[in-house]
User: Which sequence fits this backbone?
């Protein structure tokens, strides 16, 4: 099935630094979602985006729905150790009913 | 409200056996999707059920099957287990009326030996 290109694949950063990751697709999506997964648990929804150009924040997290509807970005400001995990993007196609997931960005925050 | 519940959390099976995993969605959610997660392949879509009907299916062999009951609870079955079936199986429920995307369960960790 379709898979989104997510980058970077992994990041090692110092506590306090800002983080940026993005997701691109060859197809247009109606909805973009960003999830975080911690070891041994299922992904947890962080931010949902429903309109091209939309910019949404959730605490230190900010995500944007790209104008072309083929990409999305997630930024984390002033990272802290509990930000550690794997971040996934997901897009819902025009036909609806199914979400396609990115390959994930593994984030390590060094205290 | 209660989240998505998956049982069991952990399972060890022998190659050739079959296994059934269970998922109880959030109350009111009628769509249930199943994903297989492995370190090398990421999240791979298995299938989606809505109102007891399979609405979408991923690219998995026929050994993988599922069903959904009238109360929206869903089960996933894998027959003739292979070593490569070892993975975290995630269930997610959603409601088209809320537009909140998926809510995932904690998953079932299946190990095939």
Assistant:
């Amino acid at each position: 099935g379709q898979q989104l290109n997510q980058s970077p694949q992994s990041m090692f950063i110092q506590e306090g630094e800002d983080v940026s990751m993005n997701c691109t697709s060859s197809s247009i999506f109606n909805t973009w979602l960003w999830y975080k997964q911690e070891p041994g648990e299922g992904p947890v929804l962080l931010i949902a985006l429903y309109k091209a150009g939309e910019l949404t924040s959730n605490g230190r997290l900010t995500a944007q729905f790209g104008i072309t509807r083929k990409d999305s970005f997630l930024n984390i400001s002033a990272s802290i150790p509990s930000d550690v995990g794997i971040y996934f993007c997901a897009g819902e196609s025009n036909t609806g009913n199914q979400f396609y997931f990115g390959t994930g960005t593994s984030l390590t925050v060094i205290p | 409200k209660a989240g998505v519940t998956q049982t069991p959390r952990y399972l060890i099976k022998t190659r050739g056996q079959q296994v059934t995993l269970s998922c109880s969605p959030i109350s009111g959610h009628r769509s249930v999707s199943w994903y297989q997660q492995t370190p090398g392949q990421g999240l791979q879509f298995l299938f989606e059920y809505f109102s007891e009907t399979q609405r979408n299916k991923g690219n998995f062999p026929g050994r993988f099957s599922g069903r959904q009951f009238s109360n929206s609870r869903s089960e996933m079955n894998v027959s003739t287990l292979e070593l490569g079936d070892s993975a975290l199986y995630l269930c997610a429920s959603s409601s088209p009326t809320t537009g909140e995307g998926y809510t995932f369960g904690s998953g079932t960790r299946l190990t095939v030996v």
